[in-house]
Specification:
Chain lengths: ~280, ~240
């Protein structure tokens, strides 16, 4: 099994498209850091207008912690695409180049193959989020320095002391890995139905975009379904940056994401085990 | 008979005249004492209790220079202080220049009998419309001020004295002020929260308007009238 996993990882990391994801994360973070370095204060003052009318807020506001948070927020939509780029290609990509039948002639079950490909996609997701942590957080800290972190919510101005921030980022990145694993499972599920990688990647992005719009609209007609959409729970990492971390809500969101991941993986196994493999 | 009547009238009027004069004298004496502090630095602990501001207690160094310079500095940290007229000194909340002082009697505050003065500024340059001051006449200390400002609502300052009473500097203050609404579009902030019902949202938005906030400062020590450079008050990055 370990040998097969190594083989899957080799397949993932020998394709140039895998490195596109790391390049996109790096470029986005650096562009954001340059922008915050040149006009970050003016940008943030715009968001702080209500506060600035009554209070003088002074000190190193545009610090590494704040910049990292803004980068994570801006990459909220892009990261699922980058995960889908690889996970959506796992089964459909093999079908496309005609190697799926060949792989299945080896003495492994279809269940084992799906689980190995899912494990490889999860490892890729972990590496991508870890790279995001390095570029967004540690590079921002190196450029902008440490400081207390301000988090502007729609109804609250949250300030977290600098000594109280790092553990929140560790938890937030952990949660982001969980959320992106759900996306990997969704992409793989869609990949099982397709015979080329483009379809599952676009379908994954379509689902994420539509559901994210539904999750962000505060319309009563959507409130009934919002708690059941995985996209509403994907932003659970932000909960770690509240003054009082809503652990119960985060646990609930993690449970929903695990449920979806299990559901997508189960669906993939169910369908793939019955699929007529022709290529 | 006429002389007796005149003496009776004088005896009746005199206390009121004395009271009116005393009120003015008391206010000016208090103000003179307060204004003797030209500058100070103090290690402080600040607690902000405003509904929409989720801020832990902040420790730092507070710099004050008369008449209106104030700055809090926290090493590598962010400091937050109320703006302009509502700064955290007694001197900024008692009107400057010529004033009309009205004695409105006495009241007991935390077991202390205090004289209440209403002070109306005659000049229009401080933004203060009316100030009500609770004064301990014997100690010549203000224990509470309630200041109505033009633009920033009503500000109440409660003071507790201890080690620095000779400078009229408090060990602890609580400033109660009107706070304005705070709201950002949820589409921009993309908040994570348990999804509330529409009625809850309306109630929350209503609650967010026109609230009172309390800021408490504990002064751990003071260095008074040692001179502070204006450069200290220049804004940091």
């Amino acid at each position: 099994m370990i040998r097969l996993l190594q083989l899957e990882l080799y397949k993932i990391f020998r394709r140039p498209r895998t490195y596109i994801s790391f390049g996109v994360v790096t470029a986005t973070a650096i562009i954001f850091q340059l922008a915050m370095g040149s006009g970050g204060k003016e940008f943030f003052e715009f968001g702080m207008q209500d506060i600035s009318e009554q209070f003088n807020v002074q000190g190193n506001i545009i610090n590494g912690y704040l910049v990292a948070y803004l980068i994570l927020q801006s990459l909220l939509i892009q990261i699922p695409l980058l995960v889908a780029l690889v996970a959506g290609d796992t089964l459909a990509g093999e079908a496309n180049i005609g190697t799926l039948r060949l792989v299945l002639t080896r003495p492994i079950t279809r269940t084992q193959l799906v689980l190995i490909k899912f494990a490889a996609s999860t490892i890729y997701t972990i590496l991508l989020i870890t790279w995001l942590a390095v570029i967004a957080l540690f590079l921002s800290l190196a450029i902008f320095g440490e400081g207390d972190m301000i988090n502007l919510k729609s109804d609250a101005f949250v300030m977290i002391l600098k000594d109280d921030v790092i553990w929140r980022y560790i938890c937030a990145f952990g949660f982001a890995i969980l959320a992106m694993t759900t996306i990997a499972a969704l992409s793989m599920f869609l990949s099982a139905f397709a015979d080329n990688g483009i379809g599952p990647i676009i379908a994954t992005m379509g689902i994420v975009v539509v559901l994210t719009i539904l999750s962000s609209l505060e319309l009563p007609m959507f409130n009934a379904i919002n708690p059941y959409l995985f996209t509403a729970h994907m932003v659970g990492w932000k909960g770690f940056f509240d003054a009082d971390v809503p652990y119960a809500a985060i646990r609930h969101s993690a449970f929903i994401l695990l449920l979806y991941t299990g559901g997508f993986l189960g669906g993939t196994l169910y369908y793939f085990n019955r699929k007529d493999i022709n290529s | 008979m006429i002389r007796i009547a005149a003496i009776a009238v004088l005896l009746f009027i005199a206390p009121f005249r004395m009271l009116a004069t005393d009120a003015g004298q008391l206010y000016y004496a208090l103000r003179t004492k307060v204004l003797q502090v030209k500058d100070y630095t103090a290690d402080v602990r600040l607690k902000i209790d405003i509904d929409y501001m989720k801020i832990p207690d902040l420790s730092g160094k507070l710099y004050y220079k008369a008449p209106d310079k104030m700055k809090m500095v926290r090493k590598d940290g962010i400091s937050i202080l109320p703006k302009k007229n509502i700064n955290l000194t007694l001197s900024s909340l008692i009107p400057a220049g010529n004033v009309t002082v009205i004695d409105v009697g006495t009241a007991t505050l935390k077991g202390r009998k205090l004289r209440i003065l209403k002070v109306i500024p005659e000049e229009d340059n401080t933004g203060i419309v009316l100030s009500k001051i609770w004064v301990d006449e014997a100690a010549m200390l203000a224990y509470r001020t309630e200041t109505t400002t033009k633009d920033e609502g009503t500000v109440t300052l409660d003071l507790e004295y201890g080690k620095y009473v000779k400078h009229s500097l408090p060990d602890k203050i609580a400033i109660t002020m009107d706070v304005k609404e705070y709201k950002l579009p949820k589409g921009v902030t993309m908040d994570y929260s348990e999804i509330p019902k529409t009625e809850d949202l309306k109630e929350k938005m209503k609650d967010n308007k026109n609230k009172k906030g309390v800021i408490e400062i504990a002064y751990l020590n003071y260095v008074v009238n040692k001179g502070i450079s204006d450069a200290v008050f220049k804004e940091m990055k």
